[in-house]
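Design request, tokens follow.
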């Protein structure tokens, strides 16, 4: 990034869904997709950005889905947390193949594969230029990885949450089903909550609202969008959730 393209943010939290790792598949991890994400993360890190990542586990196991099939909700959620650990290890491996120093910090202790989550340790890793991947959600059942992302972003004093999805922002209807659907350029926290917009769960949105932490929702499948969001091009290609009034693209 040139001086004319200096990054707007110094410390960010990137929220990836487990489904983002599937590529065009129906489950599991797609290595080429993982490699592409790692290469984009490398561009951000090399620009001097301190980057933390929270990744879901829906490509392997989703706790809510297990609970609806008759499993105990707490047990299903713990299984989902372990799925995020698998994804975190896969992403760490791919990042380090790109010569990016990476640390996985898990909310569930498993010292053989990850460091235990300690806030000060996480901040220190970021200050040393390492990418930090937060695994196992919050370590508690009934909380999603969206909530974990909001919580960890607050704890490390991130300036923004980048919410990577397969859609280029937030719409007032499903753009795949409704050709008249319109994309929000900016949308307030209250509108997200009141309209039930599918951004993050209500707990995560409320945490961000209470701490005035902006969320940028963008399309991960378009190469370069992580870099564009860091440069402050949000609104042009995604949606910003924050304190500003709701506007349309």
């Amino acid at each position: 990034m040139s001086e004319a393209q200096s990054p707007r943010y110094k410390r960010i939290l990137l929220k990836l869904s487990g489904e983002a790792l599937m590529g065009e598949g129906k489950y599991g991890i797609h290595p080429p997709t993982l490699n592409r994400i790692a290469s984009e993360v490398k561009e951000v890190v090399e620009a001097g950005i301190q980057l933390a990542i929270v990744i879901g586990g829906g490509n392997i196991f989703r706790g809510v889905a297990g609970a609806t099939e008759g499993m105990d909700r707490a047990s299903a959620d713990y299984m989902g947390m372990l799925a995020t650990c698998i994804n975190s290890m896969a992403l760490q491996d791919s990042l380090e193949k790109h010569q990016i120093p990476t640390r996985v910090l898990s909310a569930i202790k498993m010292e053989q594969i990850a460091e235990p989550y300690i806030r000060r340790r996480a901040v220190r890793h970021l200050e040393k230029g390492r990418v930090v991947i937060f695994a196992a959600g919050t370590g508690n059942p009934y909380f999603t990885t969206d909530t974990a992302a909001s919580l960890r972003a607050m704890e490390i004093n991130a300036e923004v949450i980048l919410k990577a999805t397969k859609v280029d922002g937030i719409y007032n209807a499903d753009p795949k089903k409704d050709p008249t659907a319109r994309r929000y350029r900016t949308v307030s926290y209250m509108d997200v909550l009141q309209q039930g917009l599918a951004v993050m769960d209500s707990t995560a949105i409320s945490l961000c609202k209470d701490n005035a932490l902006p969320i940028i929702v963008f399309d991960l499948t378009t190469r370069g969008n992580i870099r564009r969001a860091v440069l402050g091009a949000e609104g042009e290609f995604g949606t910003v959730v924050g304190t500003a009034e709701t506007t349309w693209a």
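Comment from the thread starter after seeing the answer: thanks! The chain has a mean pLDDT of 92.
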